[in-house]
Amino acid sequence: MRYLPHTEQDIQEMLKKTGHTSLDDLFKTIPAQCQLKKELDLPEALTEWELDSHMEELASLNAAFPKQKIFIGAGSYPHYIPSLIPYIAGRSEFATAYTPYQPEISQGTLQGIYEFQTMITELLGTDVATASHYDCGTALAEALLIALKKKKKLNKIALSSLIHPHHRQIIKTYLDPRGCEIVDLPFKDDGTTDFSPLDAMDDIAGIAIQSPNFFGCIENLEQAKAIADSKKALFITSFTECLAYGLLKSPGKCGVDLVAGEGQSLGIPQSFGGPGLGILTSSKKYIRDLPGRYVGRTKDKNGETGFVLTLSTREQHIRREKAGSNICSNNGLNALTAGIYLAAAGKNGIRALAQLNHDKAVFLEKELHKAGFTTPFSQPFFNEFVVKAPKGFKEKRDAVKKNKGMVPGLALEKYYPLLKDHYLFCATEVFSKKDMETMVREVK
Amino acid sequence: MRYLPHTEQDIQEMLKKTGHTSLDDLFKTIPAQCQLKKELDLPEALTEWELDSHMEELASLNAAFPKQKIFIGAGSYPHYIPSLIPYIAGRSEFATAYTPYQPEISQGTLQGIYEFQTMITELLGTDVATASHYDCGTALAEALLIALKKKKKLNKIALSSLIHPHHRQIIKTYLDPRGCEIVDLPFKDDGTTDFSPLDAMDDIAGIAIQSPNFFGCIENLEQAKAIADSKKALFITSFTECLAYGLLKSPGKCGVDLVAGEGQSLGIPQSFGGPGLGILTSSKKYIRDLPGRYVGRTKDKNGETGFVLTLSTREQHIRREKAGSNICSNNGLNALTAGIYLAAAGKNGIRALAQLNHDKAVFLEKELHKAGFTTPFSQPFFNEFVVKAPKGFKEKRDAVKKNKGMVPGLALEKYYPLLKDHYLFCATEVFSKKDMETMVREVK
Amino acid sequence: MENTSGISGLILKEDFLWNKSRKGRCGISIPKQDVKQSLLDPELTGDAPELPELSEFDVVRHYTRLSQWNFGLDSGMYPLGSCTMKYNPKTNEVQAARPGFAGAHPLADEELCQGALEMMYNLEQFLAELTGLEAVTLQPAAGAHGELTGMLAIHAYHEKQGHQRSKIIIPDSAHGTNPASATLCGYKSVNILSGKDGILTPESVAEVMDEEVAGIMITNPNTLGLFEENIKEIADIVHDKGGLVYGDGANLNAIMGIVKPGEIGIDVLHFNLHKTFSTPHGGGGPGSGPIAVNKKLEPFLPVPRIAKNGSTYALIQDTPDTIGRMLTFYGHFGVLVKAYSYILSLGGKYLKKTSQLAVLNANYIKESLRDDFFLPYDRPCMHECVFTDKNQEKNNITTLDISKRIIDYGFHPPTIYFPLVVHGSIMIEPTETESKETIDEFIAALKQIAKEAENNPEILKSAPHLSKVSRLDEVAAARKPMLRG
Amino acid sequence: MENTSGISGLILKEDFLWNKSRKGRCGISIPKQDVKQSLLDPELTGDAPELPELSEFDVVRHYTRLSQWNFGLDSGMYPLGSCTMKYNPKTNEVQAARPGFAGAHPLADEELCQGALEMMYNLEQFLAELTGLEAVTLQPAAGAHGELTGMLAIHAYHEKQGHQRSKIIIPDSAHGTNPASATLCGYKSVNILSGKDGILTPESVAEVMDEEVAGIMITNPNTLGLFEENIKEIADIVHDKGGLVYGDGANLNAIMGIVKPGEIGIDVLHFNLHKTFSTPHGGGGPGSGPIAVNKKLEPFLPVPRIAKNGSTYALIQDTPDTIGRMLTFYGHFGVLVKAYSYILSLGGKYLKKTSQLAVLNANYIKESLRDDFFLPYDRPCMHECVFTDKNQEKNNITTLDISKRIIDYGFHPPTIYFPLVVHGSIMIEPTETESKETIDEFIAALKQIAKEAENNPEILKSAPHLSKVSRLDEVAAARKPMLRG
Ligand SMILES: Cc1ncc(COP(=O)(O)O)c(C=O)c1O
Ligand SMILES: Cc1ncc(COP(=O)(O)O)c(C=O)c1O
Asked: Which of A132, A315, A318, A328 to mutate to test the pocket of ligand 1 (most atoms within 8 A of CB)?
């Protein structure tokens, strides 16, 4: 096997040194009754070439960007990825390193993540950002844990029903063991969160909303912040489409305490939903509360600037059962990737792309409108929006899905049972005007 | 434009330093009547994404390995390329460097080429090899130029008619200006070169044959060497399928003076015929005659081992009009690639692959035989062979070509007008038994 | 420093991105505007974020230089204990990058995702077979996330049993993520000590096990690289009192094809695909931490789960007792593709061989260095071995000094100061993909360092000498954190 | 050495492949044997070649380390004069690697190669438009090969005219490949000197031009970075006597969209796609050297040629007056794909801008360093500028010393000792993809080196200090060549 370097002679020489008679003999400290009696029932080893054809066969069974036009976002967005990004992020010095425990020979990863932390706080108007979390859903769950920790006496949080339904599920799963009460904030007619259930409550540890929310609508963060303040609750926001903040007012500017977000749009392939990039960022106040790694700037013995993992006394490997989070490995290489993307796009690029995404979505919405779809929510959106489909759409959708390799929108009924015939559509810079026109023509 | 870093401010500051009033002004030394009056008539700049789709569209118009099964070799062979090879050879330190004129910061390229030179001479049984040439055809032409240089008084060479027809064209093109006479050696019934035209000649500077030859047959190099010796001619061999020498007796062992070969099979994609890898290697005697770069081992000031380009006093940049060749840039990265391939395959891998290629070709020949094809030449072959097709084959070939994405063999009539209905087939490790059976079934 | 790989060469400084920024540059292609521009209400928009402005080449060169300051696994041996830094095959990267995988949308209709679902289904089967457990979820994003998933399942199990428990037993040698994960489920950690030969005794478990204990978290082989020989008895003790046994599978590389955790009493086990299954660690992640469970715990696995109906694959979005959902979608799919490719490339036979050779390499190192460094537990080890700096103490040399000096010899240092149970531990995990020659070089380097500790301790104290920076001031970094530029 | 990019860091030694070989290892997958083995007559076979035996990881690590000893364009500025080391866009690599290109067989039937042919046809059109010439062949494998092709066409032209000629005029500043290429066609080089301002005078050409002269080989801008202002008159002189004008297009990066060589009297011109058109040089190649010709020379272009018939593309395998064939197939197709991608990415507008900025950068360097280094031709330059070591002679410092010292500052040295016409030349070509900041750093480094030459010449003499090896003994290498291990 080409990955295993040991020749028969190597094995014999090494066994001699260790004082064993055979490879099996190495395991004699394992009680016999623990040892497996038969061989593993796994497929025979494939050659590299058999693997190639098997995998290409599997891959070809999936609808995928760029071949198929999938007009869905909902937490995973098709965006162009500049070719320099996989090339650079794939360099073995980055990709095959472990967590930078030895900073002297990990300065590349460390400076790269430090720059990522910097650019993310710049994008979101916050003060500090961690080196990454798994994804938006898990980052958001951690943010709510912080709220509960900060407000020790309270055990109640409020979640907008327009937070990604999967994220709400994650939060529920994370918080369940502590018997925490979750107040569900319904949505208003305009497609934004309805805070009225909070009117009578004053024991909320944290309020979380997503913006743009799951319907694509842009929430009014300043107003929400005022409500949170009036309740003395931590105000937490999340987002699944990072690119929106090339255009929208940043959560930091709106006074948000903690921001959890998904960074997949920043140069990371969709990959059937993962690995993405969990972003966790906040105002300075929470610097010691955010979970996971930070890279900090310091100096070496000779006074040269360098970087280290820092503030690790918050973390599990030091605090063990007293740590606020258990996170260890995170999504570092994707953070580096997002950093490369932000550096390449830059101030103007990110703005132009964000504006273009919005333009495309507005165009698509108008086209659908012309084709008989209605738009139930009036609040402006970024690059996703909800429409109510005319009769017969489902069948047409099935047909183009099969024959044209197009996937027109995501049915919302599954997530919001009352929203029968409602679909969430997404348009990004990867869809040309013609793509959109063709799709609309097919489902009209 | 994302490749051009200059901001408007940069340009103004720099113009100030250079004392010009505008970018146009920089060109004022160019006489007005030399300056272009209108803009270039070229397409507008494409975005990276437009380029992607344009190129994918063009690429998809080609039949290509691995999607299509092209049973043709004839100088370009489908072989598996281990994924490590493009990954490593694509590292920018290798790919974006120039020729190692500054050895202190080019030791990677230099050791890599030194190791290539070593392994190539090992494979071919020779003493020295250059750092590479363009391809086999041009390398062979250079070898014949050496023969003419060595035998100053003679102006006649003999070429086997079973040397790749394109290579013979190149040689003719290269030698034409010197009015050199080329004796064409016909082929015998067994599919090997007929040396009998030489019987009456004693003014031949060099004799060149290809083995395996264009018909795939293995020539008897020892016998040919004896004939060349008896004529006091330099004996030159070539090959288009490098992998053959994982199995066959090496030309060096057979006493060949100069060997020119094609290294494409060693991990280099076919790429519609280029860039390939010209191999030039010989016995020690010709060390100062081979054209192009050599990497040599030496020491630095501190006694550390290091490598440099050496023996460059043979080359154009020193000898100018007195140089034996004009070669400057060669196919260095492909030489490095071939080195990686040889290192990864190793002694056992190269042998096993070569044997497997032969096995596959023998199988295919037998299958075709069963299907009514005849085999005109009796001499053993490596992984290519000639068959005479039964009636109706041409039409069936056209049909599978269109409908099945298979290309069964290369018609030889174009190259050898007497060989009507003769086809050159190739089988390598990339064709499974099933691929071959399917193809034969379709054309039967 | 003869015969060592570490030497000094030219590398290049590189300033921060923002110091290289110049107004007006942009390093990417902006698609052409083929639809009308629509301006949002200015109330909603902000100023463009002040990101650096660079050309494409600036960006390429910046990160190329940064990369050259890093030591990767492809650069040299990386014997980081507990991290299983084995070769990351390049073909795995090719597989994950196929457009049909990399461009697949997680919410496209099921019939458009059959290839992705089939791959995941198969991988679940493989992981179940490897562990002798019943069912697998691929959702957890990393090892710690797998722990949390498993512990939540245990929590749900006890809930379902009608009596929630309050404690969890955790050996002193456990990884920090274990107690932290248990805490997240509301369990109080009860720490127990390893016995004097480095493994747990049934007695120490029996002593603390009661009906308030939800279970035990065990790493086997443990973080000292030793097989927990009493695992079956311990499991029985825990099971007898209604508890469950959580297995931390970080060290699975020692026992593939040798021991099936499900057969020795483990109820739930997490994998680190970025360790045992060769997926690159990316300088911190993304990893992937699937868990396998037995029948008892299967009902509690997170949703969605993958089902095979005839020849099609489907996602089951809800099961009655599920703990819920652990990640937005189905796990780190791109990482799963690589692990799946790895398993297929080795098959059962070579996975077993992998474990055998990993254990051989570790024992070989242990035996070779036993005279030079102190072995706190002098027993046959599994895939890693743990030394300490005790022999060097007299020269005032610490584990940190030794590890920094290793850098000068061209190797990545081992894991240090973990497990905590051993003072000054040096935890060496060579993995099976290191050849005997490389290991011999590593041994020679460590022997020389042991000599230097005697004869020239200062050279260890001041190490590393060849790296871009020397030892960094971590105290200052933490005291006055500078976390952004 | 303040403010310099060059610093020292850890790199790793690496032995020869064969010293790492162990019997029985193999680093690749051998496809399964699904057909019977057939043994060849043992008379025909030899022993397996003694290639090194390594695991896949051994190979990856070996070459990764080697690569880390190299300085690439992505590592830093590489102002190698005459080589146009501009950014090699990563998207070009993606395009060339598409299976439809990389896996295409050159002899598959024409209708199966339409995409490849269309790309080549388009590229020929683009190159013709850029030069104002009529027809293009993409066949030549590199610049020198293009020269040979062009000179063979000139040779065939004269043959066709009925009177072959014997000589060729070559300026002293020409690249060595020019006279060498002419010699291959049997032409004797007649060298002429540049005028005192670095360019050719019509008089010097007129003096040697006669009916025995086949033509002249001119590089414009020439290798001093100067535009040959008398090109039209010179071309007239040559044409009047029945000669032809060969243009060496290595320096095309200066004049795209500014001058069309075909309009100033050039009959044939070669391109270096690996210079002007951004394809990577690969540490020595493969390059690509298409030539463009005017109507006079078109009949002599090598075959096959590419024709467009309606919407299909065809190969014309024979033309009556062709010189024949220059390469086995159609040229370095994989390189052509990259150059084509580059042209499409810039379009006419940005190709012109490219030349403007390349010239701006060179002039900026020239003006910035004029007080520090001697400028043999003090005139506005094109895309490169040439200095010499004359100012440093008094301190016994040579161009070689200066260039080696540049390495310590983290830059690749310029081209040195070429063109030969200037003693100790230092030929700096920054290209347009270097930013002003990088160029300012480079200028600062050179100024500092000029100061060091005064104050501390020894540091130049002993340079480079940071690279893996110091100056190498080239004399020993050539005296007793060791060309294999
Ligand atoms: C024994 C052990 N358990 C758990 C973990 C946590 O795994 P991860 O980093 O993937 O979250 C580690 C990782 O270092 C470990 O070594
Ligand atoms: C002016 C000039 N002409 C010709 C050449 C030869 O080009 P190539 O190396 O592509 O053969 C070069 C390359 O260095 C050159 O600089």
From this structure: A328
Please tell me the distance between residue D175's alpha carbon and the centre of ligand 2 in angstroms. 7
| B298: three-class secondary structure by DSSP | strand
Beta-bridged to residue D291, according to DSSP, are D137, D270
pLDDT in tens, C133-186: 999 999 999 999 999 999 999 999 999 999 999 999 999 999 999 999 999 999
State the smallest CA–CA distance between residue D55 and chain A in angstroms. 5
Kindly give, in sequence order, each residue whose CB lies less than 8 Å from that of residue D155, ignoring residues fewer than 6 positions away.
Answer: B176, B177, D164, D185, D186, D187, D214, D323
Token pair for residue C296?
């008892």
Distance A300 CA to ligand 2 centre (A): 46
Contact residues on chain A for C364, CB-CB shorter than 8 A: 14, 17-18
Beta strand B294-299 with B305-310: parallel, antiparallel or unpaired?
antiparallel
Interface mutation target, options C1, C2, C4, C12, chain D, most CBs of D under 10 Å: C12
Q: Compute the distance between CA of residue C341 and CA of residue C364 in angstroms, rounded to an integer.
A: 29
* Lowest mean pLDDT across A312-316, B52-56, C36-40, C426-430: A312-316
For residue D3, the model assigns a pLDDT of 65
pLDDT, residue B405, reads: 86
Chains with 3+ CB–CB pairs under 8 A to B are A, C, D
Per-residue model confidence as pLDDT tens digits over D114-151:
999 999 999 999 999 999 999 999 999 999 999 999 99
Distance from CA of C114 to the nearest CA of A (A): 6
Contact B343, D51 (CB under 8 A): yes
**Strand order of the sheet with strand D268-270?**
D135-137, D291-293, D268-270, D244-248, D213-219, D167-171, D188-192
List of residues 6+ apart from C440 with CB closer than 8 A? none
Query: What is the pTM (predicted TM-score) of this model?
Result: 0.98
Give me the pLDDT at residue D258, please.
98
Strand partners for D428: D80, D385
Statement: residue B314 has pLDDT above 90: no
Q: How far apart are CA D307 and CA D298, in angstroms?
A: 14
From residue B338, how far is each of A261, A290, B223, B332, D197 by CA, in Å? 46, 51, 30, 10, 47
The answer to whether D22 contacts C435, with C-beta atoms less than 8 Å apart, is yes
Angle between helices A332-370 and A433-443 (to 10 degrees): 50
CA dist D474 and D13 (Å) reads 22
Q: Which positions ≥6 away from D47 have C-beta within 8 Å?
A: none
Give buried/exposed letters for A371-383 (b at 16+ CB in 10 A, else e).
bbbeeebebbbbb
Which residues lie closer than 8 Å to C344 by C-beta, 6 or more apart?
A43, A45, A46, A51, A54
Protein residues with CB under 6 Å of any ligand 2 atom:
B 328-329; D 82-83, 142-144, 175, 177, 219, 223, 248, 250, 272, 287, 289
The Å distance, Cα C287 to ligand 1 centre, comes to: 10
Q: Are D149 and D136 within 8 A, CB to CB?
A: no
Ligand with smallest separation from the Cα of D217: 2
> C229 CB contacts (<8 Å, ≥6 apart)?
A29, A30, A31, A34, C199
DSSP secondary structure letters along A358-391? HHHHHHHHHHHHHTT-B----S-BSSEEEEEPPT
Residue type, D357: L
CA A303 to chain centre: 37
Residues near B411 by beta carbon (within 8 Å), at least 6 away in sequence? B394, B422, B423
Q: Ligand 1 centroid to C471 CA: how many Å? A: 26
pLDDT score recorded for residue C3: 65
Give CA separation, A105 vs A101, C199, C407, D70, in Å. 9, 34, 8, 19
Searching chain C, which residue's CA lies closest to the CA of residue A10?
Answer: C436
Q: How far apart are CA A325 and CA C145, in angstroms?
A: 10
Q: Is C393 helix (H, G, I), strand (E, B) or coil?
A: helix
